[in-house]
Specification:
This protein is α+β, with helices and mostly antiparallel strands and about 170 residues long. Helices cover about 55% and strands about 10% of the residues. It has nine helices and four strands; from the N terminus they run ααβαααααβαββα. A four-stranded mixed beta sheet has the order 1-2-4-3. The longest helix is centred in the first third of the chain and has 26 residues.
Amino acid sequence: MVLFLVILTIPKALNNTYVNIAQFTKFGYLFVDKDLEQSFRFIRDNTDKGSLILADPTFDYDRYSTFITAFAQRPMFVSGEKILKNHNVDISKRQFIRDNVFKGISFELIARDLLSNKIDYIFLWERDDNFAKKYEDFTDVSFNKSRVKILKISKSRLKDFVKTKLNY
């Protein structure tokens, strides 16, 4: 009798498992793709522990949680926005700075903000090469995969950029 009951429940358990796995893979939850995993390993292995990283606002995983911090073990300029807003933490200034960098509207503001906030790296998610080219005067591509690019900000070149191009 017990064996009969177990045999009857196996198809339902298998079906539920299949449906759950299909849902996770459909929405991208649960799995970290190779590009992300390699980028996090690169950050852990090739940056100082205090390096400050500015993440692309289109990378939704990091907007809802501290995703990059958890895997890369480095501080983020803005991370887990939804959590912080739910706890009434004012991050509007940092969001404004981040959005200005990624919109590329004012190089004067961008250069000053990158310097004054001591941002060391920019984490790009599914961006074309035009973004990196806009900032090539003071950044180097440190990591480059099909979906992820990491730009290292050269503080000396950024200071020179501010002095020469912006006449400061």
